[in-house]
Design brief:
Length: 121
């Protein structure tokens, strides 16, 4: 295995080991977008055909999100799935480039991944 494959495996393992934090960060991002769009929980429920309590659980990270439901939520919020996922994906770049981009995004889980990757270099 080459270094890039090893890095990807290590980052993926980190994500699997920090699933709760990932759910919290993803939920926080979705809630932030929903609120910026002025969509209430009840409206989101109608748009997604999901119970408001379930959406609240997703937004506070106490529940995980299936791919199907993730796509439905992105459609309801009128956002591209990549807008949410880009902060959680591993792309081999220079540490300085990654750090600059992620600090601009201000995402906690991304910063944790960056620190993890930097320790491995």
């Amino acid at each position: 295995m080459n270094n890039i494959e090893t890095d990807v495996i290590e980052v993926n393992q980190y994500i699997l080991n920090h699933k709760k934090e990932l759910n919290i960060e993803l939920g926080k991002n979705l809630k932030e977008i929903r609120l910026k769009r002025g969509i209430t929980l009840e409206e989101m429920s109608a748009l997604t055909q999901m119970a408001p309590t379930y959406i609240a659980q997703l937004e506070n990270g106490s529940n995980g999100l299936s791919l199907n439901k993730f796509i439905i939520i992105c459609n309801a919020l009128k956002i591209n799935t990549q807008e949410i996922l880009r902060d959680f994906l591993f792309v081999k770049k220079a540490s300085e480039d990654i750090l600059f981009e992620e600090l601009q995004n201000g995402k906690n889980i991304s910063n944790n991944i960056i620190e993890f990757v930097k320790r491995k270099e």
